[in-house]
Amino acid sequence: MSAVISEEGGVVKAELEGRLDTMNVNNMEMQFTAGIAPKAMPTIVDLTKVTFIASLGIRMLLTTCRTLDRRGAKMALYGATPPVMEVIETTALSEIIPVVGSEAEAVAAVKG
Amino acid sequence: MPPAGNERGNELVLHLPCTMDSLERARLSLHDWLGDRMPSEGALNRIEVVLEEMISNVVRHSIGATALTLAVESGPQSLRITLADDGPAFDPLSASAPKPYSSLDEAQPGGLGIGLIRKLSQGAAYERIENRNVFTVSMATA
Q1: What is the Cα–Cα distance from A49 to A51, expressed in whole angstroms?
Q2: What's the ipTM?
Q3: Where are chain B's structural domains?
């Protein structure tokens, strides 16, 4: 599992790769949150290469998004594969965080 | 080292320590056992999520559990997954379902795991048998 965090055009981009399962989230949640939340900038999260997500992964995305929201910044997810999308929809995360198909749509969602 | 256990035709039985490592060991053992009975991609993902949540729930929250027994039984277009642990009595189904999300600010991050088990399975049941928690879930394979 890896998380690459970069900045471009006033937007933070987090590219996640691998399985967002219990063990991996335990190992990388701190890095993910610390790399995003203090910036308090519009943030997009690339899920294209995430092959699996369980409840701790959903919790990590939710808590990071909520922290950003309280600091006045938006976060959007994009590129979820069908198995990952099913879990996102089952937990209703997509009701409160924008989940879109492409990077361009995600940028538009957080800058709008 | 492979987990202690055995495979008896339509049933997989694994004896695992109550540790985080057991999550991945159970998943890989399940994959090996499924072999050519592999469910559809969507069903397999739902089975993996539910298995992860069942084991994670005990490993992360039980105070006192040391050993797990995982049994997976194959039926017609379904799998019956049973997880037993030797921790204090706890019915994971006793918790009320988390409130539906209405806003980001009010969203509670807890209770997601049991919610996923309830929604992705065909049914779930808890029993306390001989000082062990026994949690059984039925999963569709199609």
Answers
A1: 6
A2: 0.94
A3: 4-140
